[in-house]
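USER: If only I could read backbone structure tokens as easily as an amino acid sequence. It would mean a lot if you studied the pair and described how this chain folds. Here is the record:
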Amino acid sequence: MSAPEIPRLSWPQRLIVTVVLVLLAVWIGLAGAERLSARFDPEPARAVPPPAVETLVVSEETAVVERVYRGSVESEGRARISARLTAQILQIPHREGALVRRGDVLARLDDEEIRRDAARLEAVADRLEGERATARREAARQEDLFRRNLTPERSLDDARQRVSTLEAQIRENAAALGLVQRRLTYAEERAPFDAQVQRVHASEGELAAAGQPLVELVALSSLKAVVQVPQVDARRLRPGMTVRLEVPALSRIWPARVDRVYPALDAGSRNATFAAFFPEDADGVRPGMAVQAHIALDHIEGAVRLPAQAVLGEGPERRVYVLEDGRARERLVQVAVARAGEYLITAGLEAGEQVIVTADPRLGDGLPVQAGEHPHR
């Protein structure tokens, strides 16, 4: 069996195939030439523009170093009224939150037994006064008889001794009566100053023991801020220093002065403590509220103020970048105060220098930069 005969291409068909093959060969040749050219004659790298930064022309100033410390509002007038008798509680007329005036009764205790003791001692006093009067008349009579030699001296001495004994008994009874009358005043506990009832510790009908707390008072005047200060700043505190007292709950600030600095540090926190009084018109302030004390501890001459993003590193010695001849130059500086958003620099910079304030991780010593002025200065 013979193989099938392959049909022959016509002349136009052969021409088309030839042209296609030639074009394919030319394309392959051009691609290879381009690859060889890129390998042996690479295109030069494009120049990278310097990073754009903002600069700040610094100036020296006298900076006030202000610290903010936290504390709480306390009342200078605070009292816990306790029972001074062991007796039943008859009445507690005021409850928590009540306003009381100085001298108002806070608690009444049963004083019936004490009154009976007082009445008994008063009766004894009357009896002794009568006996002394009789003894004095008898002593006078014995003196008259003795002058006329009608009675022995011993009778006169006995009469005089009787008067002395009765006078001693009268003094003793008077002292006992005074104590009882004083205890009688303990049956009514009164407010020592104008205040508000903070807490009632007992109820009517209870048997109160001597020393048992009954009512706790806080004065709404003479309010003070008691503030904790780290011991490193304690040596700078002085009575009379100006302080601003801020109560965040009221969104208000009052001017004040440091009234006292407590000599001993807190045993737990090792912090110092100072107190400053609110003015009398500090409406809304109540004991127990949180308070922030703003106090200027120091003044720094020739300080430079920089935004926080311009200062790098940690600790007292940090670094900044200064613009010199179009390049960033690293400069070591000393930081005196680090506050939210800014630093006070005390050494390492001079007035008129341009400090780079852009936080760019590409910055390095000697790096060319394209500088623009900081808009916030």
